[in-house]
Design a protein that fits this description.
SH3 type barrels; 3 domains; four-stranded antiparallel beta sheet; 3 helices; elongated
Amino acid sequence: MEFLKNNYEKVILIAVLVLLAVAAGYLPIEYSAVKRSLEEATRSYTRRTVHPLESPDLSTNRQVIQRAMHPAAPQFASLGHNIFNPIRWIQGPDGTPVAAEDFGVKGLEVEQIIPLYTRIEFLGVRITPYSTRYEFQITQQASTNRTERTPRRKFLTPGEDAGLFRFREILGDPKHPKGAVVEIVDEPKPVIITTNKPYQVIAGYAADLRQKRTNRLYSHLRVGDRIVVGRLVYNVVAIEPTEVTLEESQTRKRVTLRLNKTQKNG
């Protein structure tokens, strides 16, 4: 007892060391047992096939972004918007009230749009005792000069200038020509014209408009013409293959009338 009383600290230390040695020897055994149990659990576990997540439907989000990028602009000044354009009503032929704008430009429709041509024709040779000249016929349907809209004949010799074109040379026998070579304004290369093949290009357009309410026809309008619709004066400022643009002479407000799809160009 006296020994334990004097050396109890050493005895405790020895006991702890023994326990640690036993624990250190037991750890590999426990590790192996745990490893085997984990391997058995892994082998018995069936892995399910994992499918990738489907992409979310973002079509509505894209539509919202597109609308935000291209917002609709209000057209308060256009026809049909009456917030700042109050309608004036008048008495119709049958006594019922009718919107005054129905008698104006709103009631106009494009009946047809007709192409206007510039045409140069070679008609042949004109021989006299004094000269040999060549006959051409010129038609400028889009011209602002009314006399130029009807066919005009010119007698020229090679080298002469007719304004619209320059007569360059004759093709074939001068007394029995097959055609002529001409240099036309705004054409990059010389053009060959024969008696069977004239030169022809579209130089503009004319349009026929009809007021639906009054049934009034504005026929063969050209750019620069003026018409009176519903007591207002409009200038024809542009005519394209499928539309006509009018401008009110006082306010300079423009309106574009489009050719009905059921109608055909002239």
